[in-house]
């Protein structure tokens, strides 16, 4: 009997159970909603990587360019021998920019909910940076994260405007948690998408190739596969629009007709036009970034943006 196989099976069934509970609870809410973290199964993660390459989706390439341009400056500001702690380590492209720019980096600690993802990222980084101590942490960055075992000064990294997925109270709670984890001499590099022309925002979430729609509807596919659901993918549509009053993109899947769907043995009725919320993507400006920093007892040391002011990378330092 192989212990690691048992462990993996257990982790997978625990993940599926969490998904089942969240979906049944979310479909019983009015309005209905399913938390965004469930969009990232293997296929969802691959579709998200495709989104990052879309001409309309300026976020990833803009942030990456800012980090490239500012890497040396970030390295000087952070100083030698710190530990880099990444919240929700996606593709490691951006982390590599920092790993290479931080002088005498002591530790790289990626935090992610996916054990498989973490193992793959850690293996590649250990291969490419043999001197780097990689300490993966399997946890939800919103939940309690176990302390990172290092005496080095901690530099947090939360890129990609993932903070935008969080509702204001959750975002403040994330900032307080990050501040506690990073400590009194810690710092946090935060990537945030900025408010801009609503049409530009709209287009970023309604791409002409339909990849964002496939990303949203993949959640139905995942429910069909993992929860024995009976969603007809042709009977639902992706919907995304900018709500200027709330400064956020709102994303849903919408029922195209009256229909019933079975999910994990339970029946759910959908009226034509009824929507299930899957994501918010909050957009920030100088004032809301400042308020966010203060809510976690951080102060803004520097804000870097691209020439068109699409995206901001903010360097925050812990404050007492
Ligand atoms: C990963 C949350 C930053 O809000 O832009 C992209 C997710 N959803 N297209 C975003 C997303 C649809 C993305 N974040």
Question: Percentage of helical residues?
Answer: 40-55%
Largest sheet: 8 strands, mixed
Portion of residues in beta strands equals 15-25%
SSE order: HEHHEHEHEEEHEHHEEEEEHEE
Q: Which residue ranges are poorly predicted, with pLDDT under 50 across at least 5 consecutive positions?
A: none
Briefly note the structural class of the backbone. alpha/beta
Oligomer: single chain
Written overview of the protein:
The relative contact order is 0.15. This protein has helices at residues 3-28, 42-51, 58-78, 93-101, 115-128, 168-182, 198-204, 211-226, 286-295; strands spanning 32-33, 83-87, 107-112, 133-134, 137-138, 154-158, 187-193, 236-243, 248-255, 259-263, 266-270, 275-282, 298-305, 311-318. The protein has 320 residues and is of the alpha/beta class. It is built from nine helices and 14 strands. The chain is 40% helix and 25% strand. Strands 2, 3, 4, 5, 6, 7, 13 and 14 form an eight-stranded mixed sheet that branches. Strands 1-12-9-8 form a four-stranded mixed sheet. N,N,N-trimethyl-histidine binds at residues 51, 59, 160-162, 164-165, 205, 212, 215, 279, 281. N,N,N-trimethyl-histidine (AVJ) is lined by residues 51, 59, 160-162, 164-165, 205, 212, 215, 279, 281.
Characteristic key phrases:
single chain, alpha/beta, eight-stranded mixed β-sheet, 9 helices, 14 strands, binds N,N,N-trimethyl-histidine
Task: Please render the helix and strand layout as text.
Elements: H1 3-28, E1 32-33, H2 42-51, H3 58-78, E2 83-87, H4 93-101, E3 107-112, H5 115-128, E4 133-134, E5 137-138, E6 154-158, H6 168-182, E7 187-193, H7 198-204, H8 211-226, E8 236-243, E9 248-255, E10 259-263, E11 266-270, E12 275-282, H9 286-295, E13 298-305, E14 311-318
Parallel strand pairs: 1-12, 2-3, 2-6, 3-4, 3-5, 6-7
Antiparallel strand pairs: 7-14, 8-9, 9-12, 10-11, 13-14
Bound molecules: N,N,N-trimethyl-histidine.
């Amino acid at each position: 009997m192989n212990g690691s196989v048992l462990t993996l099976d257990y982790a997978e069934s625990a993940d599926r159970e969490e998904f089942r509970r969240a979906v049944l609870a979310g479909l019983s809410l009015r309005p209905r909603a399913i938390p965004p973290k469930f969009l990232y199964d293997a296929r969802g993660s691959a579709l998200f990587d495709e989104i990052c390459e879309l001409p309309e989706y300026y976020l990833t390439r803009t942030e990456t360019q800012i980090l490239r341009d500012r890497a040396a400056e970030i390295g000087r500001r952070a100083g030698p021998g710190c530990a880099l702690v990444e919240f929700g380590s996606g593709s490691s492209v951006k982390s590599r920019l920092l790993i290479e720019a931080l002088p005498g980096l002591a530790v790289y600690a990626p935090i992610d909910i996916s054990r498989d993802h973490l193992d793959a990222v850690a293996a590649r980084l250990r291969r490419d940076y043999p001197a780097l101590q990689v300490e993966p942490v399997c946890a939800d960055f919103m939940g309690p994260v176990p302390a990172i075992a290092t005496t080095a000064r901690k530099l947090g990294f939360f890129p990609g405007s993932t903070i935008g997925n969080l509702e204001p109270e959750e975002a403040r709670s994330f900032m307080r948690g990050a501040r506690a984890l990073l400590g009194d001499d810690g710092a946090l590099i935060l990537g945030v998408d900025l408010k801009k022309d609503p049409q530009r925002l709209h287009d970023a979430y309604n791409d002409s190739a339909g990849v964002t729609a496939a990303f949203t509807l993949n959640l139905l596919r995942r429910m069909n596969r993992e929860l024995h659901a009976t969603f007809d993918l042709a009977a639902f549509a992706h919907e995304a629009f900018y709500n200027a009053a709330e400064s956020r993109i709102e994303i849903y899947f919408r029922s195209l007709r009256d229909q019933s769907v079975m999910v994990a043995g339970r029946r759910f009725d959908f009226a034509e036009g009824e929507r299930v919320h899957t994501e918010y993507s909050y957009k920030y400006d100088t004032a809301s970034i400042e308020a966010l920093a203060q809510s976690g007892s951080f102060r803004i040391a520097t804000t870097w943006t691209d020439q068109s002011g699409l995206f901001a990378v903010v360097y925050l330092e812990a404050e007492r």
